[in-house]
Design goal:
The structure holds 2 protein chains of 2 kinds. Chain A is mainly alpha-helical. Chain A has helices at 2-8, 11-43, 57-84, 87-118, 128-149, 153-167, 170-180, 200-232, 237-249. Chain A is globular and about 65 Å long. The two termini of chain A are 39 Å apart. Chain B has helices spanning 3-28, 30-33, 39-43, 130-144, and strands spanning 37-38, 53-59, 65-66, 72-78, 83-89, 101-108, 114-122.
């Protein structure tokens, strides 16, 4: 078991393994997107209150969920990197940040577009759900800026890992904001004690899209980690050998 | 203690420390974190006196009255226990409906009427097809109609 983990965490091994992993994420991801988009746009009925405008949920909810999931992956990888000094896990954290920031941006943008006709406003300052999600976007930016500002990779890893850990407190705040305080944003539809408050015909495409986004996120993350590993190991023996042997083949 | 265990402890302390700090901060800011004030709190006088604030609740079924020749309108906001009359002039969001959630921004005038300058509709967490919703209409109406039964304990009435 430990031997397997050690092998997986070795940069050259992961570099060679990644291309084999990516299709296992991409293929189910693309299939699920195809089903989710078709079912979400054509099979699911219009909502009794919102009409067709509710369909933005099929982008909004997966994005919002992944914005938090990516943060947790980033924070946990950063912690593992700090404690066990595993280089690959710092690479995972660094690779997850821009993806998480993009999903946060998507969640905010789609929410805003939906909010204008439904709530009557693009944005409400002071709303706990909206504000805490925006803070997470800024934490992502801060994390990336901090990494970019420090040339020494090992130092950048440590400093940014602490920032990632501090910012992690925001994730449960985002999730529970609609329960703890009064908010313009509605409460949870899916993660409720008495089951999802959604018609099954609307629910299944949503679950498919959530899964699809997760798979595609996995594909993107794996590719980004691979690039990150290559950059970090650019001065090592195995990268030099690989480049030389590739040159020799030409 | 091994160095690795020390680092584990340090990471744990950072996470717990930040969580506790956040907890105290949010607890101290509790009132400011509320996006809106509930109807019962407004009726009980627990709202910011010196500035505009947001009032949140459901639009009381049957209470919406519009002027013939202007955008002026009045309705009542309820939390199933108390009611506050609201007066508003302007365009309403799509989701504004009787029995639906609403957040009004404005202030109370001397006679207890909430003068709103902005009305936002608050959506609930339920998603349904229209035909499913139709079959529930009677049920929903039952919930929103007999409000007067609940108004005991509400000194406005």
């Amino acid at each position: 078991m430990w031997k397997f983990i050690h092998k997986l965490a070795s940069p050259p091994h992961f570099y060679n393994l990644a291309p084999k992993l990516v299709p296992w994420f991409t293929v189910p991801g693309v299939l699920l997107v195809a089903y989710g988009v078709y079912a979400g746009l054509f099979l699911a009925p219009a909502d009794y209150q919102q009409g067709d405008a509710f369909r933005i949920i099929y982008i909004h909810v997966p994005s919002a969920y992944l914005s938090m999931m990516a943060y947790m992956i980033m924070a946990v990888s950063a912690a593992i990197g700090l404690i066990w000094r595993i280089k690959l896990s710092h690479a995972v954290a660094a690779a997850a940040a821009p993806l998480g920031a993009w999903f946060t941006f998507l969640a905010l943008a789609t929410g805003s577009i939906w909010g204008r006709p439904m709530w009557g406003t693009w944005w409400e300052w002071g709303d706990p759900r909206l504000t805490s999600e925006l803070i997470m976007l800024f934490v992502y930016f801060g994390y990336m800026a901090l990494r970019a500002a420090i040339d020494d990779t090992a130092k950048a890893d440590k400093a940014s890992a602490v920032l990632a850990l501090v910012g992690a407190v925001n994730v449960p705040i985002i999730h529970f904001s609609v329960e703890w305080w009064s908010s313009l944003h509605q409460g949870a539809t899916l993660l409720r004690k008495d089951g999802p408050a959604m018609d099954p015909s609307m629910l299944y495409p949503l679950l498919a899209m959530i899964l699809a986004f997760t798979f595609l996120f996995g594909a993107l993350l794996t590719r980004r980690i691979r690039t990150e590993v290559l950059f970090r190991e650019r001065r090592t023996r195995w990268v030099k050998d690989m480049v030389l042997s590739a040159k020799g083949r030409n | 203690m091994k160095p690795r265990q020390q680092r584990m402890l340090a990471v744990g302390l950072v996470v717990v420390g930040v969580a506790v700090a956040a907890l105290f901060t949010l607890q101290a800011l509790k009132d400011n974190m509320m996006f809106f004030v509930s109807v019962s709190d407004v009726v009980a006088g627990e709202y910011p006196q010196d500035r505009n604030f947001r009032l949140g609740g459901l639009v009381l079924a049957g209470s919406v009255e519009r002027e013939e020749d202007s955008l002026e309108m009045t309705f009542k906001v309820t939390d199933m226990r108390c009611e506050v009359p609201v007066s508003y002039t302007g365009v309403l969001p799509d989701l504004f409906r009787e029995g639906q959630g609403v957040v009004a921004h404005g202030r109370l005038d001397g006679s207890g009427v909430f003068i709103a300058d902005t009305i936002l509709a608050k959506h609930d967490e339920n998603y349904m097809a229209p035909e499913v919703a139709d079959s529930l209409v009677d049920h929903v109406a039952d919930q929103t109609a007999p409000l007067t039964e609940y108004t005991t304990g509400c000194n406005e009435q």
